[in-house]
């Protein structure tokens, strides 16, 4: 399993099929999930495209981004009537989509579990954010 900076995970099922979901870390931060908007089967996505949306009971909404480029082969239809399944098993039965991928090379650029566990969002601020922080200090 590999992870993104925006808390998605991707797991290879075979040489050109992956399962995608959101990490346990982000779900713990959100609280109880009450709504999931998934893409349609057959839709195509590039890496980092908006793939899905998840809403918690307190109204927090997050966007889920595609960790890889490919075509959606299957959605987890159970989530339409039971979105809380993501709370119970975000990195298991609460998966979002299965996708036919274009290139497995994209997966190699994602974080391993160990890297993800060590990851803190502050470590990945881009230069613009650093510049903005510097300007605020003066």
Brief write-up:
By secondary structure, this protein is of the alpha+beta class.
SSE order, one letter for each helix or strand? EEEHEEEEEHHEHHH
Q: In total, how many domains does the architecture comprise?
A: 1
Helix/strand-derived category reads alpha+beta
Give the CA-CA distance, first to last residue: 43 Å
Strand order of the largest sheet: 1-2-3-9-8-5
Question: Major sheet, described briefly?
Answer: 6 strands, antiparallel
Mind explaining what this structure looks like?
This protein is of the alpha+beta class and 138 residues long. It has a single domain, classed as RNA polymerase II/Efflux pump adaptor protein, barrel-sandwich hybrid domain (OB fold (Dihydrolipoamide Acetyltransferase, E2P), Beta Barrel). It contains six helices and nine strands, in the order E-E-E-H-E-E-E-E-E-H-H-E-H-H-H. It has helices at 24-30, 78-81, 85-88, 105-108, 113-118, 127-137; strands spanning 2-3, 8-14, 17-22, 33-37, 44-45, 50-56, 61-65, 70-75, 97-101. Strands 1-2-3-9-8-5 form a six-stranded antiparallel beta sheet. The chain has a three-stranded antiparallel beta sheet with strand order 4-6-7.
């Amino acid at each position: 399993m590999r992870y993104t900076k925006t808390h998605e995970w991707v797991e290879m099922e075979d040489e050109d099929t992956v399962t995608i979901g959101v990490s346990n870390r982000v779900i713990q931060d959100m609280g109880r999930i009450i709504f999931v908007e998934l893409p349609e089967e057959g839709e195509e996505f590039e890496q980092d495209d908006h793939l899905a949306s998840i809403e918690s009971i307190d109204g927090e909404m997050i966007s889920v981004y595609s960790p890889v480029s490919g075509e959606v082969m299957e959605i987890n239809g159970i989530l339409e009537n039971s979105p809380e399944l993501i709370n119970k098993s975000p990195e298991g039965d609460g998966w979002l989509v299965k996708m036919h991928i274009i290139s497995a090379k994209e997966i190699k650029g994602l974080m391993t579990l160990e890297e993800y566990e060590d990851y803190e969002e502050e470590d990945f601020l881009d230069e613009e954010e650093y510049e903005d922080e510097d300007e605020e200090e003066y």
